[in-house]
Design a protein that fits this description.
Layout (H helix, E strand, L loop, with lengths): L4 H31 L13 H8 L5 H6 L3 H67 L16 H16 L24
């Protein structure tokens, strides 16, 4: 451990060396600047990523800072947009409810119409069945009457039926047309096995 004047001498040497080096370095830099011996760095080449960022980036100027929208303006625009969306949503909701109501009314009308048509259809089916039953009351089907040819005339078929009624069923009034009227006669074809 140094004592007395020895310690002060040590710190003086170091401070003079430090300041001396700093002054020499500063003087050297000033000298280089004066003689313009320092080369400018051209920066990265045009194909590097850094060059692309440098050429496309813009410096922020006071004018561009003034052009930036403030938070209050953004909040106002957001509020306005939010209100417009609410209004549009309400209009759509109203239209949807109106369409639902109209659809419900149309569904009700269609159901009523379908029920009415079902009733009319049932009535018509009943009438058709009644008429078919009335028509069947006057129809008789005879089996086993021999058919001479497929082109047998109605008159020949009628005579065969009348003879069948007289000969097989003992109905004497079947001989003449006055007592037993036959409106139409036809063969229904042979029974297929």
């Amino acid at each position: 451990m140094a004592t007395g004047s020895h310690a002060g001498w040590h710190s003086d040497v170091w401070s003079s060396l430090y300041y001396g080096c700093a002054l020499r370095l500063l003087a050297s830099l000033c000298f280089l600047l004066i003689i313009s011996g320092i080369e400018t760095n051209p920066g990265p080449g045009p194909s590097t990523r850094q060059a692309k960022i440098s050429t496309t980036g813009e410096l922020v100027t006071q004018k561009s800072i003034d052009d930036v929208i403030s938070n209050e303006e953004i909040k106002g625009m957001f509020s306005s947009l939010s209100q417009q969306i609410k209004k549009s949503t309400e209009v759509l909701r109203t239209e949807i409810e109106q369409l639902r109501h109209e659809g419900s009314e149309n569904h009700k009308i269609m159901n009523e119409t379908v029920e009415k048509l079902k009733g009319e259809n049932r009535l018509l089916l009943t009438k058709v069945q009644y008429l078919e039953n009335q028509n069947r009351k006057n129809n008789l089907i005879f089996w086993g009457i021999e058919e001479i040819s497929e082109t047998e005339s109605k008159e020949v078929s009628e005579q065969k039926v009348r003879q069948f009624l007289v000969n097989k069923l003992d109905i004497e009034c079947a001989v003449s047309d006055e007592s037993l009227q036959i409106e139409d006669i036809f063969r229904i074809g042979k029974k297929e096995d």
